[in-house]
Amino acid sequence: MNWRLVQRLLSQAGYEMHWAEDGLKGCEAAAGLKPALILLDINLPGLSGFEVATKLRQNGELDATLIVALTARTMRSDRETALVTGCDGFISKPIDPFLFVGQVEAYLGGHRDLLERGREGAALRHFSHQVVDHLESQLREAQESNQKLLQVQSELEQRSHHLSRLLALSKDIIPIRDEGEIQFRVLGQLHQELHLDQLRSYRLHDSGAYFQGLKKAGAGFEETPALPLDHPLLAWAGSLPAGGVLAGADLRQSQAWEQGIDLGLWDPRAQGLLLPILSRSEEGHLRGFLAADRSDRAFQPFEIELAALYAGILQVSLENAGLIAHLDQTSQALGTSYEGMESTYEALKEAQRALGAQNQKTVLGGLFLNMAQRLQVPVHTLQEESVLLSAFMDRSDIPAPVDRLECHRSMDQIRGAISQVDRLVRALLRRTGQGETTSPEWIHLHDLLRQELDLMLAEGSLPGDLPVKLNLQAPRDLLLGVYTDFAEVLGHLVAHAMEGRPERLSIRTWGGNSHFRLELEDDGAPIEPGLLAGAFEPFLDLRPTVQDAGRRPGTGLPACAQLMNAYGGTVQILPAERGSLVRLSLPME
Hints:
Elements: H1 2-12, H2 23-33, E1 37-41, H3 49-57, E2 66-71, H4 76-84, E3 89-92, H5 100-108, H6 120-172, H7 179-193, E4 198-204, E5 210-217, E6 220-228, H8 232-238, E7 246-247, H9 248-252, H10 256-263, E8 271-278, E9 286-294, H11 301-394, H12 401-431, E10 441-444, H13 445-459, E11 468-472, E12 478-481, H14 483-499, E13 505-511, E14 515-522, H15 529-533, H16 557-566, E15 570-574, E16 580-587
Parallel strand pairs: 1-2, 2-3, 11-13
Antiparallel strand pairs: 4-5, 4-9, 5-6, 7-8, 8-9, 10-12, 13-14, 14-16, 15-16
Helix pairs in contact: 2-3, 4-6, 6-11, 7-11, 11-12, 11-13, 12-13, 13-14, 14-16
């Protein structure tokens, strides 16, 4: 209030004001600002105004600065002390608003208060007494503070000791699975740490029908009579908030005190403690409680907190032990179930093998029927051409040149039919597992293309009415590899083309001595550029389906890329006016 009044009066008079709340901050501010005048309150926190004036006068840079004491002390000795410590004047409080600005201007104008001759010694002695009193007061405060610090340090060391033992206990009981051993370790150490006379622990039985109890007896624990769920002490303890520990007068004044005496939880003349343990998953559900007492002294706040920590560790450890026991039982049950599932799986595998054999017979039956129909044309050609050739061969005279040409034409037809039959039979043997399919061999890729296309037509994966244009121009097609790898690649490419429902299919090869290139082009539906960018990424079928996205790349294209990568080749989709165009490139060296 004084500062606001001084600021208002002097600001209105045109002066610039600065404020410091204690002596040390004021000395620092004065050293930096070097003001024309300092208004110094005598009653300051820490250093007194007299001591601050003495310190300011020790700074030679502030010799031109005026110091005016501003205080409610009006005794002659106080005025003299202010002057002898370096003040140039003295203004009494409370401030007179009508005279204050004039007083300040008078000091700035050269007015000084002078000490009477011969009074310096008395003023210095008075100041010395004040300094000594101040020092004695600060020394007493320092001693009291030191005593408090020592007491706090002792309490902290004691807490650190308790918490270290608690931490060590929590580590030791982690591997323990027996609930009785856990309670013995935790409650035994709690009894020792707090120097308890009695300690009892109650927890809800696994059946949920009653509370079972343990009490400290000698070096161990023994069971106590069970508590029914409707006991009034349980209802009252369950109404307490989480962490609501009761001890001392609070417990004595509660409803639980007399009930606990009747149960023998604590002695009427002792200091008692009740600590409810609530469920961590069900709010307000009582899982148990701890009850203890001792006769020598009351429970301190830290001891109550420590008891709560022990109760928390006990609860968590028991819950973890129960959970692990349940997991062990579940694991054993799963093991038994797994053995049953394993035997069932073996039976299913046997049934699957039998069913697979039956299905294979059915599929092969249909395949053989299609193959037989495909073989009718070349066999019929063989029959006709062989009859025609036999007619020429039966003639006794030498065939004429025209007849010899006809013989050669028939022989070419027979060779072509035999080659077609041979391709179909070899492909059929490979498809039924009778031919070598997994061992590397020298493969003519052009022959493989023809064989597999014939087989696709026979099994129906390639429509018979779909025009397929073959343009096999590659000068080199002999490559060492696994037949089924390239058959699988061709199958994936044809399946990709069929996704667009094309009206025609074009397969062509070209290349040089070092590379073999194969292109398969269809005129079906186009594919969005965004889908083309990820056509060869794996697990396309796991991505979410986009509604109205149009044609999608074939799901076998990633497998094509992986197989070609094994042979040092590449697969790519190139832009096409209609449908799609897939190109394979294989090194032949």
